[in-house]
Amino acid sequence: MPVIKSKPTNNARRRLSYLKFDGDKTKPEKSLTFGFHRTSGRNNAGQMVVAHKGGGAKRKYRIIDFSMTSYLGQKGKVETIEYDPNRSANIALISFEAGNKIYVLAPETLKKGQTIICDEKTPIRTGNRMMLKNIPVATEIHNIELTAGKGGQICRSAGSFATLLGVDGRFAQLRLVSGEVRKVPAENYASIGIVSNIDHSKVVLGKAGRKRHLGIKPTVLGKSKNPVDHPHGGGEGHSPIGLKYPKTPWGAPALGRKTSRRKNGSSKLILSGRKK
Predict the structure, then answer these.
(1) Residue 212: in which H helix or E strand, if any?
(2) Domain ranges, ordered by start, for the chain
(3) Of 37, 67, 143, 144, which has the fewest CB atoms closer than 10 Å, so is most exposed?
């Protein structure tokens, strides 16, 4: 979708840009949507556990089928390409001959009226879903399972994809956009193509109000807070943090430290770390 820059009629719109939506401007499928109450970053006790959340425009959640294994071998027709306020990518409404309908992540170049299929082995066509061991090398894929049967877990945001480097025994090797190379079980499923809405990262919000519409509140520096709220807090005015290295609000090192857990089961499947 092309990025459109607004006319600089005032300071707020001087750098503002937005995407021209090329999909279908229809109401979402009622059976696949529900309203939900956002917690604004607070837990069941009302304590703030995630900062900078709150407010925002009302949304209805679209139920996305990240697996599609319930419809193995069945051809589905693309009814609409729709906007989803809960994610950066567009979604596609798929209908099957039996009358069932599902929402899936829409890959780039997927058009209304096309058919897609999920099976152990399918034709290599954008939108089709199949096992990694049956996908040709160097194919761009998305919505990839890490745990069999759990549905796609990685490469789900706008413009993201992974490249299949090869299949060696029980595992397939993938290169992610970050540069990380990792092994994934070869019998896991993945979808063909790149996730839609590639130009999402090029949009400039331009003003604070658009940020608030997304449910994101202003960020406050730790040194501007009280000592009870942040390790950097306290002091006179905008004084230094008074520490050897910056810390998170919970006291962990904030810069230069890897946040992935070494004892995580999937760590042994990472062949080379991310470059970005």
Answers:
(1) helix 208-213
(2) 3-200
(3) 37
User: What is d(CA 125, CA 142) in angstroms, rounded to the nearest whole number?
Assistant: 13
Contacts by residues 218-221 (CB-CB < 8 Å, ≥ 24 positions apart):
218/52, 219/51, 219/52
Residue that has been written with the tokens 């490249």 in this structure: 163
Closest CA to 162 of 190, 136, 185, 123: 190
For the chain, the straight-line distance linking the first and the last C-alpha, in angstroms and rounded, comes to: 25
Distances (CA, A) of 239 to 1, 62, 176, 234: 46, 46, 41, 8
Mean pLDDT of the chain: 93
Tens digit of each residue's pLDDT (9 = 90 or more) over 183-210: 999 999 999 999 999 999 999 999 999 9
> Exposed e or buried b for every residue in 44-67, given b needs 16+ CB within 10 A?
eeeeeeeeebbebeeeeebebbbb
Q: How many Cβ atoms are within 10 Å of 182's Cβ, its own excluded?
A: 22
C-beta of residue 162 within 8 angstroms of C-beta of residue 155: yes
Q: What angle do CA 196, 197, 200 make, to 5 degrees?
A: 145
